[in-house]
Each structure stands twice: as structure tokens, then as C-alpha cells.
Amino acid sequence: MKKLLIPLISVILLASCSNYYKAITATEPTKAASFNDFQDSSKYYILRNGNEAFVMKNISMSSDRKNVQCTLEDLPVEHKLYVTEGTAGNMKYKAKDYANEDETGVLNEVHIYTIPGNKIETGAYTLAFENIQKAEIIEKDKIKTKRSHVTGTIIGWTVAGVGIIGIIIGILAIIVSSTGFL
Predict the structure, then answer these.
(1) Distance CA 59, CA 168 (A)
(2) Has this prediction a pTM greater than 0.70?
């Protein structure tokens, strides 16, 4: 019986559900209005310059709305998923990494890409809107995530059903062989 349970559990674990995210490109990233004055405290702003990525903290908009002043800091590991994987990766995140429905981490990131060639370092920084190449807002891919959960559930229940039928047949075979019936 144990020989049947181990493969059954392995298949169910392999068919587990996945959670996905997607990157939405901002329509007009060079305009201040695109960033809602950086007032959305639930967003985690990341400045991207080639292979470099920095956290934007203490963000404030200039009075003429042409620049943003901020403090750049090194990007912590919990915010490097999209930076390292990008769209070339499978765009999955682990739900266990998020303890509540607010799902932080990759799902609240805004990636702001600068025009190549700018030297950027940690510390005080002024970003001119005209130097923004593009901006991406990361959000949960609800359709792909739901599809994964439905598929995983169907596969899990199917495998479990087949496993239970196999166990019943195995038990019946043992009973028949031990009683000499047939």
C-alpha cells in the first residue's frame, strides 16, 4: 500500500497550483500624471538602469512637475524576482511568500526604466521625466493564476480518484487471494 501512496502523493504535489504576475506598460511614462505624484504608498518604486536596479525612497515631485527627487537604495532580495527573471522567466511567484491578501513583493512593484547611459548610484537622486524610457506596473495575472488553480485541482482530484480505485483493487486482490475465492 505504501508503494502506491508515495507515487500518488508525488503526482499531486507536482500538479500543484501556481500564481502568476504580469507587467503592464504605462501609457505615458514621461508625464508626471502617470505616476499619480508617487503618492500610492502601496507601490514599491524601482529605478532600472540597464542591469542595475534601485529602490526609490522618500519620493517627492518638483513644483514644476518635471523631476522627481528621491533617495536610491540597494534593492532587497525580496524585490529581485522581476529584476532577475523579467518577462523571459515563467512570471510565477510563490503564494506562501505572502501572508495575507495584500500580497506584497513583486505584486506591488513599479519599474521605471531610464534612458541608457546615465550613471546612477545610491544616495540622493533627481530623475527628470524626460529621461524615463518606459515604466511597468506589476500586478497579479488573475486569469493565468485561476487557470492554473482549476487545472491543478482537476489533475489532483483525478489522480486521487485513480489512486483510490487502485488501492481498492489492490485490497480486493489481497482479500481474494488470501481467501482462495475464485
Answers:
(1) 64
(2) no
Three-state DSSP at 137 gives strand
Round to whole Å and give the CA distance between 79 and 88. Answer: 17
pLDDT at 99: 47
Distance CA 81, CA 132 (A): 22
Cβ(50)–Cβ(120) below 8 Å? no
Could you give the CA distance from residue 108 to residue 159 in angstroms, rounded to a whole number?
A: 36
Express each pLDDT in 102-148 by its tens digit: 446 777 888 899 988 778 899 999 998 888 888 888 887 777 767 76
Q: What letter would DSSP give residue 13?
A: H
3-class secondary structure, 11:
helix
